[in-house]
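Hi V.,

You were right to ask for the full record rather than a summary. Here it is.
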Amino acid sequence: METSRASRPCICPNCGKEYICPEGQGRPAFFPFCCERCQWIDLGKWLTGQYRISEDLPPGDAQDEKK
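Predicted structure:
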């Protein structure tokens, strides 16, 4: 399978599958995942707390702080 200049190999961050992803506006709605299922699995991991940001933000970096 030959790739054109308008596409490049990508690796799904959820399942690790290599796939060809188009550049620009031709990207699927579930990019950077290989399919919609992997996108939903990733969202589920965030919502259940399997993924989290474990480090506190330094003072002054929080967006909700009043200036």
